[in-house]
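Protein of interest.
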Amino acid sequence: MKKFYLIISCLIFLIDANAQSYKTLHFNSIVCDTHNDIISTCLEKGYRFDSNLTGKTHSDLKRMFQAGIDVQVFSIWCDETQPQPFAFANREIDTLYAWINRHPDSMVIVKNSNDLIQAVQQHKLACMIGVEGGHMIEDDVNKLSSLYARGARYMTLTWNNNTSWATSAKHETDTSHPAHLGLNDFGKQVVKSMNRMGMLVDLSHVGEHTFWDAIHTSTKPILVSHSDVYALCPVFRNLKDEQIKAVAKNGGVIQLNFYSGFLDSTFPAKETAFEARHKAEKDSLMQAGKQEFFADNYLFLKYADEVKNMRAPFHLLLDHLDYIVKLVGVDYVGLGSDFDGITFPPQQLDDVTAFPLITKALMERGYKDEDIKKILGGNFIRVLKANEVK
């Protein structure tokens, strides 16, 4: 009997030691999430980021600290129907600055890698700005410079909509606007301007022609802030093998999106069935003035049990990561959750507080500590430094 209890005690000790080990590694690493849409969500719903939003959102200030997130790139987003996208972008930036001004002891804006490291050392959330959609510069390089001056350190060349100078992945075959594929001369000028000022060129959301034009135009490592692997889930937002190889050759980094629809190839059929069941209710919400994203989000919260069963298995996120590592190496992958911009995160990743589970899973898959630190944030910081103007 004593031997039995000794075995049980050893097992309990090993389990506790393993839990302590992954948490220690996670909280001793610099964890960078390159894409979170909480600003848009707070503006739409009237929420305060510095209040307890558990059960309402994926993120709030307290939970980011609980998650061990050191660096958060906050997405500045509006869709193509916004009549004054540049002004709206500035409104969202104002919102972030208001949060920081209310909590100067726990949040700080960072504009370069030195600021980032200093913020981490001071145990503050390093807040960065990423503009999600080139339509927000309104075809004006001066407005791009203005956003950079306010702290924007990446811009996604397109969102789901085409601009007059770049085609998106979702509408690349729409030749009505613009009447070209990829980047036109002005689009290439935008990329060169971003290189000169030290703003990362983000190729999430862009069409293949835009991707290749930007890769061939940029003289600095590029960012893919929130995308996944096409070979494992063939949807328009994911990267094909040749694109992944090109990012690695360029010295850039691919930050993995947590959206089930980009991770799980069986998800679209589940989503179609959900939409069919609730079409009438969605149509009613949109007729009442809700944007489509927020109408969808309302339904997803209302029918949470249905949604839970649709979510991708947690292991698929790690499968996408493994795929990139095996294809091009561990130096070219990181995490760009898209929390509060997605409605179907994988199982177990219910909100930002689940970030340590990724570290645990990486350890279980045999990744070395130094490689885990690269994935959690080191690779993004390398690309950030490489883009800075010396």
About this structure: The first strand starts at residue 32 and ends at 36. Residues 267-311 form one domain.
